[in-house]
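Deliverable D5.2: sample structural annotation.
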Amino acid sequence: MTAQLNTTQALASKVSELLDVCSWDTEEMAGFITELHLINITTAEEFEDRFVFETRDYRPHRDFVQYLVWEVFGWADDIAELKGLVIDWDASWSLNYRNHYDCIYYDQAHFYFNDGLQARLPY
């Protein structure tokens, strides 16, 4: 039981370190950790390895996919050169990314995690 408590405390500490959740009380943190357990994140190391993005945007999936393409994949300059290009970020989420990332909605924010299998991309 002590080992499990230490693991949970380490996970809560890592969540506090990486996310802007300083306003969460103990009960709110416990609720978020329960959500993490539902996607098989039970240790601080798993959280750190799998956490990708947090947003409070009103179109969170679009915001996340745009972040992936521009910041993670580094395609911002390439896309900027394509004049007149229209990208349906929500459709990209639905068709290509939702099966490779877990999303937790908690405290009016969306938290994205890779699926633990190195987020296999569809191409």
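Annotation notes: Residues 39 and 102 are 7 Å apart (CA to CA). The two ends are 44 Å apart (CA to CA).
The annotation will be released with the project's public dataset once the embargo ends.
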